[in-house]
From TrEMBL:
Protein's UniProt keywords contain Iron: yes
The protein's Enzyme Commission number: 1.14.11.33
Entry protein name: DNA oxidative demethylase AlkB
Organism in which the protein naturally occurs: Dongia soli
UniProt cross-references to InterPro entries, sorted A to Z: Alkb (IPR004574), AlkB-like (IPR027450), AlkB-like_sf (IPR037151), Oxoglu/Fe-dep_dioxygenase_dom (IPR005123)
Names of the cofactor(s): Fe(2+)
Annotated gene: alkB
Keywords: Dioxygenase, Iron, Metal-binding, Oxidoreductase
Keyword Iron among record annotations: yes
Taxonomic placement: Bacteria, Pseudomonadati, Pseudomonadota, Alphaproteobacteria, Rhodospirillales
A single GO molecular function term of this UniProt record: broad specificity oxidative DNA demethylase activity
Fe2OG dioxygenase domain segment(s): 103-203
Pfam families in alphabetical order: 2OG-FeII_Oxy_2
Region forming the signal peptide: none
PANTHER family per record: ALKYLATED DNA REPAIR PROTEIN ALKB-RELATED (PTHR16557), NUCLEIC ACID DIOXYGENASE ALKBH1 (PTHR16557:SF2)
Length: 203
């Protein structure tokens, strides 16, 4: 069912369960053309989460900052096109949450291995905060940390399982959030990994 989290934020439990096998095949295809890599933060730290992208733009980070780029710096080519299955799923989830005209131009693909985590942050490198972000979880389970509008607001913890989809619009769009350190395990589809897709309207 639909579970409201905050103003404009919902988790759709199991919304993508029928599609996880196809989504995983699409991720492997994307990664064969734009490989997963551990990027460097502006502060000089190596991200424990490995990332790649598909769509018109990809999110990247290096010593010069966080930003979106149309060219993958690892291949000097465009990012792989967004699969139609990705776009259809993201639009169907956004519709359910009350955002009927969602046209994402980027899908950031995160890959977590045991020990990887994502510290509390805001997603604010996009030009248009009126558009939601749609996220899809695949593979090993994780604990999602959902804070408030300020970094020091207490974060609530939510389990995220394979096939769960979340839509972050309205006030929740700029809330601080992160992912706790991934525990070890073996998923029947993805083996030792958790993947997360985030669909974004970049500009
Ligand atoms: C709440 N990814 O890629 S998805 C990210 O599981 C990111 O890999 C996490 O945060 C992951 O930036 C969390 C859930 C999520 C995504 C975007 C949000 C929650 C959000 C944007 C605003 C508020
Ligand atoms: Fe985020």
């Amino acid at each position: 069912g639909i579970m409201p989290l905050a103003e404009g934020g919902v988790i759709l439990r199991g919304f993508a369960l029928d599609e996880v096998t196809g989504l995983f095949a699409d991720i492997l295809d994307i990664a064969s053309r734009s490989p997963f890599r551990h990027m460097t933060t502006p502060g000089g730290y190596r991200m424990s989460v490995a990332i790649t992208n598909c769509g018109d733009y990809g999110w990247i980070t290096d010593r010069r900052g966080y930003r979106y780029e149309a060219i993958d710096p690892a291949t000097s080519k465009s990012w792989p096109a967004m699969p139609s299955s990705f776009l259809a799923l993201a639009q169907r989830a956004a519709d359910m949450a009350g955002f009927p005209d969602f046209w994402p131009t980027c899908c950031l693909v995160n890959r977590y291995e045991p020990g990887a985590k994502l510290s509390l942050h805001q997603d604010k490198d996009e030009a248009d905060f009126a558009a939601p972000i749609v996220s899809v979880s695949l593979g090993l389970p994780a604990t999602f940390l959902f804070g408030g509008a300020r970094r020091n607001d207490k974060a609530r913890r939510f389990p995220l399982n394979s096939g769960d989809v979340a839509v972050w619009g309205g006030a929740s769009r700029l809330h601080f959030h992160g992912v706790d350190t991934l525990a070890g395990g073996t998923d029947s589809l993805t083996g030792p990994y958790r993947f997360n897709l985030t669909f974004r309207k970049v500009r």
